[in-house]
Predict the 3D structure of the following.
Amino acid sequence: MQMSEVPVFFLHGLAYAGLLFLVSAGLTLVFGMMNVLNFAHAAMYMLGAYFSFTLLQATGRFWLCLLICPLLLFIIGALVERFLLRRVHAYGHLHELLLTFGLAYIITELVKLIWGNFPLATNIGGFLGGTVEIFGMIYPIYRIFIFVCAVVVGLTMAAILYKTRLGIILRAAVNDSEMVNALGFNVPLVFTGVFAFGAALSGLAGVIAGPLLTTYPGMAHEILIDAFVVIVVGGFGSLGGAVVASLLIGELQSFGVLLFPKLSLALVYMLMAAVLIIKPSGLFGEKQ
Amino acid sequence: MTEYLQVQDIHKDFSGLKVLTGVNFAVREKKRHAIIGPNGAGKTTLFNIISGRFRASSGSILFRGQDISAKPAHVLNRQGVSRSFQITNVFQELTVLENIRSGVRSRNGMRYNFFRKPGNHPRISERTEAIAEEVGLKEVMHMPVNALSYGQQRALEIAITLSTEPELILLDEPTAGMTREETSQAIRMIDRVTAGRTLVIIEHDMDVVFSLADTISVLHYGKILVSDTPDLIRNDQRVKDAYLGEE
Amino acid sequence: MISQKKAPYLVIAALFALGILMPFVIKKYHLNMLTEIIVFALYAVSYNLLLGYAGLLSFGHAMFFGMGAFTVAVSLIHIPGLSIWNAVLIALVLTTAVGFITGGFLLRHKGAYFALLTLAFNSLFYAVATKWHKITGGDDGLSITRPDLHLGFTTIKMAALTNFYYVTLVVLGAAIVFCWYFTKTAMGQTVLLMRENEERMKFLGYNTNISRLILFTFTGALAGLAGAFYTLHFQFVSQSAISVDMTTTVLLMTFVGGTGTFWGPILGAFVYIIVQNYLSDITDRWPLFMGLIFILMVLLIPGGLSQIILSIRDLFSGKRRAGKQAAAEEPSS
């Protein structure tokens, strides 16, 4: 590997880290707050990608996809939480897991039914599809765009969580939802909102991932594992942990493929195993 | 020489919240010791530490001269310590018989056996029935827990605590939520089943305390205010002050 | 009147008798399917010991199924003259060892964490199997021929489906019966305690970590046994045997059949394979159908098919057996 290539791989890592963050941020928030591990999260990511594909084909405008698809996923997420998840809540955590798993399964099958069981190429033309000169080489703008998106979203979330009243309520609900309920806030509504927001975030990630990683039915599983590793490493419920872990894993994947091609697949798992042995609650997680 | 159960300078700190700030008391073998105090004083936390549910932040517990501060709950139980829970903590979907038998067979080395059925073991069946009888649950032995009345569930709670043949019994508010009538019955039952064993009991009901206790410790916001015999406690000014407005 | 105690043994005997008669009554094609059903029945029963009895949701059971499947294939290919028993034995030993080691890591966590970790591990195993295509055959898979069974006084040709069916019936049937017996043993009851109240168990002298590890290793070994026979049945194995899909399949079978009874998963395996067989002729998307049934069950009938059957039976017997029977919805005896 040439020294001059390092920046490229570093940037690749950043792009993937950005994507990972977008996917795992919603997952870790939902888990930290509602103690529900949403297996359907990755399915929503996939729906975002597929909706975007269709919308893009119809209108040719990518920015429209960026706006509308997350909105669609927000609505779907809200409906799922309100009418399905809540129903099963009384049966316990195991049941909630089974429900989200079942949803993921069905969504995947529906996608195969509607769009077919093969990869779809998503092409964005225009400015985002172009390249720019950076560090003395030609680099695709799109990857920089992904990273910028992730940063914007991350900062917005941080701002809401730490600077607004809503944020205080949300953070309190993560710690003690019963107390927040007792204080008069409509906790069920908060949960629906958070879940829906997580879905929207995941959908946005899907829209963005489509052009980068190709749109195909297995994409949910592919990103799911990495996202799960991110939240295990970063700590459940921790947004900061998701940031750090995403960067770690993004760069690990990027350089790993280059430096240890035989092991690259296992590297991420090994990191997870190491974290689990040394600090099971994750880098920034709460001790259980 | 240390006493049978010696609690030495126990502190417990939950992420900044200091629940126990130096608890000291001793219990002599085969005696009955009550711990009283206002809600939130840390009584259940104390039990949790003694029974091995979690560790103290500092201080030590000596049982029969041995330091048990770091021992996990299952090891302590095998050494003869057993505790009950303030909120009934049983095996909901199982029958009364199966509940009690879980402890009995544990005591008799039948925990992980792949080939023997607990029901086919005469000694285990005998002991299980005997304990059910002692707490007054013999008639309802084959009923599931959710079919029992509250009083019966509390009796089951005690039965399970006894099922591992403990020599040190820790009862956490056994009569909580009971009627006058149920409480009188419970006192008689506790008196009967703890005969010959050492008992430490947390209680709010003073009738129970004064009927059963040989000695009493008053736990007041994380510290022991005073430990003495019931008569002296009854007349202690500090205790009266602490309980002003309580009862 | 047949006593309550004797009834189950009679049912088991009847089922075995029925099983023995099958080759004379049904076509080869169906006998083939029946063998497959028995393999998956054991797989599902082992899974339910974790899910229904211990309350542990694992997304990695295919790790053991696949290990068993591959070990048999690899040993038969690389060790000439290896007997069928020894191949299965190697698979069992390896799966038990792997179960014990992975259990040590995975069981440090509970609930969702555990589920998610098993998923990650299963994916890891699948990735390794794919990368190691020199040994595992990669996408092409491995083909084997069943070695003949030498019983000292006679040799049974395993190439014949009927013969292999009988071996499967006896060996896996016995394993399933042992699982049923297991639920009544001390360890089986300990497993129930884990689901009901793991906290309290500790205060009764049970080491819960060891309890879970024992169970996890045991069910892993059983899944490995099922996997071994899977390869022997199809005389072929590919990385799909160790995929997350293979875990998903057993989860579906078990849950749809019903986690509340011992026989639920057996029924689930039966229904799943039959549906798969007939629906897959009609549509490529038959998994969608299974998925919909699954979600419906999760939402409306959490006890699965066995809950439906028991309710119908209660309806007919005029709810004579109320009280204990109705209350004990979870498997407890």
In short: The CA atoms of residues 127 and 256 of chain A lie 30 Å apart. Chains A and B do not touch (no CB pair under 8 Å). The mean pLDDT of chain A is 83.
